[in-house]
Automatic annotation (TrEMBL):
Organism of provenance: Tranquillimonas rosea
Keywords: Cell membrane, Membrane, Transmembrane, Transmembrane helix, Transport
Transmembrane segments: 12-36, 77-96, 105-127, 163-182, 203-228, 260-285
Protein's UniProt name: Putative spermidine/putrescine transport system permease protein
Any one GO CC term of the record: plasma membrane
């Protein structure tokens, strides 16, 4: 036993946990600090002044790449993925409340992408859409449709192959959360609503949805953040449009200034802001329920 009655293992575990926290968040803090260097700043310490120079460079024409376009493209994609993940996960959760033939097989198929390497999934989706491209072009040639022959280039894009690739990553998490939620859901609330004359839709909107709303916030957080930060599954499916993580990966091989740190700080702040907003919504919902 150590002094104070605490076992020595407590202090060992505390030291290990402290080192883990430093290892996890230390690099992030270093990047945030270095992104506020002056115009003559470098990629390492010591700091050379304090300013917002590299943030202004990042968002101006003086930046190395078009960051603003990639930023808002990733934001739009993440928001669409978030909404679709929530909607599809809820629908699947409701469907799996009833047993039907092949339910377990369908579940395993739905979450199988979690065990597949992300780059393999991206390559497979990219190959699939290239086959679609060839089929569309062949159709245009066979039918003599000049509009296809003249204008069609590829079906690869942010909201086609890119959206599908991101959903293969976010949906399994959303499905697992909703399956766990509905597995513990007490159907007596719905039965009471129907006994009082509520329709199925009214029961869902006024009874089921308010109960599961906090968990939907969690699914939304997963959907947004996983899509916002995804790189491997985006690498082969975005066509000519890069997302923000792809731009960041490209910058690591070309940029030797704190501009890349400014981009990392910006993306981290956007992620934290989105998570903060969603958690605030969850807190407001929970508080309003407790006050009733």
């Amino acid at each position: 036993m150590a002094d104070g009655g605490r076992p020595r293992s407590f202090y060992v575990l505390a030291a290990v946990f402290t080192l883990f926290i430093l290892f996890l968040y230390g690099p992030m803090l270093a990047i945030v600090v270095l992104s506020f260097q002056g115009p003559d700043g470098g990629l390492v310490f010591p700091m050379r002044g304090w300013s917002l120079h590299w943030f202004r460079t990042l968002w101006s024409d003086g930046g190395s790449v078009d960051i603003s376009t990639a930023f808002f493209r990733s934001l739009r994609l993440a928001l669409v993925v978030m909404v679709l993940t929530v909607v599809i996960s809820v629908m699947a959760g409701l469907a799996f409340r009833r047993r039907f033939p092949g339910a377990m097989l369908l579940l395993y198929v739905a979450i199988a992408s979690l065990i597949m390497p992300s780059i393999v999934v991206s390559l497979g989706i990219g190959l699939e859409f290239r086959l679609i491209d060839e089929a569309v072009k062949a159709f245009g040639m066979a039918t003599g449709m000049e509009s296809i022959q003249r204008n069609f280039v590829t079906a690869l894009g942010t909201f086609t192959s890119g959206l599908g690739a991101h959903l293969t990553w976010t949906l399994p998490f959303g499905l697992l959360i909703m399956f766990a939620v509905f597995n513990r859901f007490d159907p007596s609330y719905e039965e009471a609503a129907r006994d009082l004359g509520a329709s199925r839709w009214q029961t869902f909107v006024h009874v089921t949805l308010p109960i599961i709303a906090p968990f939907l916030i969690g699914v939304a957080v997963f959907g947004f953040t996983l899509s916002w930060d995804e790189l491997a599954r985006s690498s082969q499916v975005m066509g000519s449009d890069n997302t923000l993580p792809m731009q960041l990966a490209a910058l690591t091989t070309t940029v030797t200034t704190p501009e890349i740190y400014a981009l990392g700080t910006t993306t981290t702040a956007a992620s934290l802001l989105a998570v903060g907003v969603l958690l605030t919504v969850a807190f407001v919902i929970r508080r309003s329920r407790n006050q009733r």
